[in-house]
Amino acid sequence: IQDKAKKVLALKVDPESPESFMLRPKRRRWVNEKYTRWVKTQPCACCGKPADDPHHLIGHGQGGMGTKAHDLFVLPLCRKHHDELHADTVAFEEKYGSQLELIFRFIDRALAIG
């Protein structure tokens, strides 16, 4: 099975990037369209139905003026649950769990399936 697995995500780390020597490096958002397209093909993290959107984490310091969280911090959601989350984040998290926990579980699943 492992021979047939396809890589979804490859992370590269530069141990001596110019930013690593800066006191306050400018935040660069990590974008990976291939990964977010794959996330859309996964079942909704809340109901298991087909996902419509890769939801980017909100409300945990990853966004900013005019920017989203890194593409790594996305969650597959169907339209109903994506709208529900954006309508009332607190109520959504009380009902389904925190976005952080859902994303952690999703990343764990993504790594497990290859």
UniProtKB/TrEMBL annotation:
InterPro entries (alphabetical): DUF968, HNH_nuc
Q: What is this protein called?
A: HNH nuclease domain-containing protein
HNH nuclease domain location, by residue?
Answer: 34-83
Q: Which Pfam families match?
A: DUF968
Reading the lineage from the top rank, the first entry is Bacteria
